[in-house]
Structures are given as structure tokens and as C-alpha cells.
Amino acid sequence: MNLDPIFTHVNKLWLLIQSAITNPNTYGQLAIVLFVYLVAFWLARKIRNAIGVTHYEPSESAHPMRKLAYRVGYLVYPLIALFTLKIIIEAGQNAGFSVWLLHTALTIAVLLFYYSMIRVFVVNAIAAKLFLWVGLPILLLHLTGNLPIVISALEEVSLNLGNVNITAYGVVRVIIFGAVLFWLGRASNSFGKDIIRKQESIDIRTREVFSKLFEVAVFCIIALLLLNVMGINLTALAVFGGAVGVGLGLGLQSIASNFISGIIILLDRSLTVGDFVEMDDGSKGFVREFRMRYTVLETYDGKDILVPNEKFISNLMINWTHKDPKQRYRVDFSVPYATDIRTMVEFIKEAVAEHPSVISGEDVPFEERPDCEIDSFGDSGVNMFVEFWMEGIDDGKNRVGGDLMLIIFETLRENGIEIPFPQREVRILNEESLSVTTPK
């Protein structure tokens, strides 16, 4: 094995190091680099402390732009160092000085700035590792001028499939840019929707419409960019786009219907986040989120029901809280026939009105106060009911309805009234009327 080329390169490198060490200009450049970083650190700290949004850490409920401004504050230090080194290098070159060490420091500053951007903007751990272990070497090759050599080597590795030429560079480029675009689309979509939903001056339905349109726009832009990276001619694609559109329209009719139905729901304001709805199939829950294809309903037991948007348009739906959050409910019970009904009605109404969730008081309209009335005459007693109004939705046995049943039961027992149970009278007729005369 011939090791002469390796020894030659090592010898050249050693001579270069010796020349740099003995050159007084090297120490001058090193001092400039240290001075630039110290000044940049001091100046960045002053700037961050002077600006409130970059000095004080925001809370979890803060506006997304406020959080972004705080994270951007971490980039002030590397940015100042980067631009200062660039200015000094340009000035040194124009003056005819050797600035090779400053060029090296500038390369390191760019790499550190890239690393700082990953820490600031990339929250996902997998995406951060991808940017670090793939993007950092590519950036280093670009800064050192070796990236075209690597690209040429990858382009030589190719595979022909008919008229299509697939190169290793093309595959690597699609994988890298596809992953970056996918992450960029997810991150920008989440960030944009958070900003839209924080606009308190816009009503919640309009915010949902804008967030849905923003999601579609981001998806379309990312798809077009990915097609461009893959080398697909968009002009040629438009030629048969009509035929493909017809095929997709037939195949994706349900998806398109759900998407359009979601837009209609938000525009006509028939449904909004927080409403309690009940479908004709019995499923019911609170509207928690509108998605492109479905709406998320959360039940009382914590389950999420994914309802296609077109069901809210084509099927019967009961929106309990659309017009008014107040709802009226009733609780049924029975009392014996011997009960003083007029007296019992008054203390039952007073007992029900004491529940904190029941709307009551002198300032409440008479028709919305608790009311106790006779429903019907039953076999074992008088069937009564209590009507009451409350804010929000009652899930019956687990909330106000169950509490009121217990209150009514205890109130009746305190006043000596027992809830009747089914009773039957058995009459024994005279034995003589039952006797039969036997003929002799």
C-alpha cells in the first residue's frame, strides 16, 4: 500500500500549522475573534434586558407571537457575532490583510447560529435530530465548498427505468426536502392556527373558518413545493388535471362533502365550539374541535366521538346551547293521596330552589323559578313533577337531576310523607255466598 500521498498531505498540514503559529497576524486575528464574541455577548444581553418580550419568559397561556419573540431573543447573540465578523472580514480583505482565521471563525459562527435556530424553533425531538445530524454536515460542506463534489458523486450513482433516470442525489434530495417540508407544514399549521384562535376581537366561528382555510392553504403550498422538488413539471400536470379531478371527485366525494359541510357549519353559525349537541342516532356531547373531515364531540365520560361534518347538515341535530345556555328540566315523583298537596308543593319548591345550580330568586322571572305541579292521578298515589331551570347541561343521574331527587326524598321524609309503592286490596267474600247446595 502506497502511503506517500498521505504523508505528503500530513506534511503540508504541519507546515501550514507551523506557519500560522509563527505568524504574528494569526494572534491578531485570534484577538479580534475573542473581542467580537465578548462584545456580541455584552450587547445581546443589553438588548434582551431592554426589550420586555425577550427578557421575561411568557406563561403557557401567552399569545403564540409572544412566545416566539421570547425564543427569537436567544438568536440575538449569534446574529451580532455573525454580522460583526462579516463586516470585519470585508474590511480586512479590502485593506489587503490575511483573514483566513476570521473566515474559519465565520464558518463556526454560522454553524453555531444554525444550531441555535434548531434549539429555538424545532420543538419535536425527531425533527431536531434530523436537522442536527443531516442539516449540519450539509451546511458544513457548503461553507467549505465541498458540497458540489458530494453532489457530483451522488449524481453518478443512477438507475434508468425506461425514460426515467433516478439518481442517488435525486432520492436523497426528495427525502431530505420532503421531511423538512412535512415538518415545516405541521409547525406552521399549528402556529398559524394558534395565532388565529387567539384573536379575541373575532368571534369563535369566524376564527374556526380562518383556521380551516389556513390549514388547506398550507397543505396546498407544501404539496406544490414537494412536487417541484421531485422534479414533476406542473405545466404538464395541468394538462390532464381535469381528468384526474373528475376521478378524484368521484372517489373522494365523501371527503369533499365533509369538508364543504364543515365550512357551511362555520359560516351559518349553527354550531360552535362548546355547544352541547345530540344527534338523531343518540350520540351526544360537547363540540371540542372542528377538523377538515369531522367534528370532535366529547361525552360526559371523557370519550371523543368523531362525527362526519355532513351529518350535521343532512341529519337531525339538537343543539341544546345554541340560542341560550339556560335549559329546563323536570324531576318526577309520587305522594300518597292523603297528602296535603298545596302545602307540600310550597316546601318542595323551596327545597329545590336552594340547590346552587338551580336558577331561583326574586330577580328571576316567575316562569323560570322552580315549580311543582300535579302530573296525573296514579294507581298508588298522586304523580307530581318539579320543573327547574339551570345554566348549562344536566347529565341527569350524575349531576343536578340526581341531587334534586335526593333533596325531594329527604324533604318528603322530614315532613312525614312517604313515597307510595304499588298496593292492591284483597277482599274475602262471605263463605255462605261461596257454598254450593248439593242435590240429594
Quick synopsis:
The protein is of the alpha+beta class. The protein has 17 helices and ten strands. The protein is 58% helix and 13% strand.
Count of DSSP helices?
Answer: 17
| Radius of gyration, in angstroms, nearest whole number | 39 Å
Helix content bin: 55-70%
Supply the number of structural domains: 4
Which sequence of strands runs across the widest sheet? 6-5-4-3-7
Please identify the structural class as seen in this structure: alpha+beta
Q: List SSEs in N-to-C order.
A: HHHHHHHHEEHHHHHEEEEHEEHEEHH
Describe this structure in words.
By secondary structure, the protein is of the alpha+beta class. It has 4 domains: 27-163, no CATH class; 177-255, no CATH class; 272-319, SH3 type barrels (Roll); 326-414, Alpha-Beta Plaits. The protein has 17 helices and 10 strands. The strands form 3 sheets. A 5-stranded antiparallel beta sheet has the order 6-5-4-3-7. A 3-stranded antiparallel beta sheet has the order 8-10-9, covered by helices on one side. The chain crosses the membrane at residues 26-44, 68-89, 95-118, 130-154, 166-188, 209-230, 236-267. It is found in: Cell membrane. Keywords: Cell membrane, Membrane, Transmembrane, Transmembrane helix. Its main location: membrane. This is Mechanosensitive ion channel family protein.
Structural features:
440 residues, alpha+beta, SH3 type barrels, 4 domains, five-stranded antiparallel beta sheet, three-stranded antiparallel beta sheet, 10 strands, 13% strand, cell membrane, MscS-like_channel, MscS_channel_2nd
